[in-house]
Amino acid sequence: MGVIRWILGRIILVVEALTKPKPPKLNADQHQAMVAFSKQVTLYQFQACPFCVKVRQASRKLGLPLAAKDAKRDMAARRELEQGGGKIKVPCLRIQQGDEVKWMYESDDIIAYLNQATTPITQAD
Rounded to 5 degrees, what angle do the CA atoms 123, 34, 82 make? Predict the structure, then answer.
């Protein structure tokens, strides 16, 4: 079973590499705003998880440089995810808003949040 997972993981990563969306063309102010927003969020992921790939592809499509932590191989990230989010489940987006921290699971919810949060940035001229 481990060999099958390993092979499927490699296939997922190859497909991700071959289907990387191009980021939008952002002006300097929009790019700076995206970078500033990206400092508020961190994606906890497993590298070959198809739902994590879905979130990474969506962030690329938005032009959002999303920081990611591998909760499978990085034990410190795994502990952060478990202690902060309450469970080891990926993808999980850690959202820092001031002193408040929120943990969001489910790829579709994460993508909807990122789209909603970055729309004002991409529509600003």
Answer: 125
Residue identified by tokens 């497909």 is 15
- For 88-119, letters b (16+ CB in 10 Å) and e give eebbbbbbeeeeeeeebbebeebbebbeeebe
- CA 51-54-55 angle, to 5 degrees, is 95
Copy the structure tokens of residue 32.
């700076």
pTM of the complete model: 0.91
**CB of 53 closer than 8 Å to CB of 80:** no
Could you tell me which residues come within 8 angstroms of residue 20 by beta carbon, excluding any fewer than 6 positions away?
57, 60
Pairing of strands 100-105, 67-70: unpaired
Distance CA 88, CA 10 (A): 22
- Residue 27: pLDDT over 90: yes
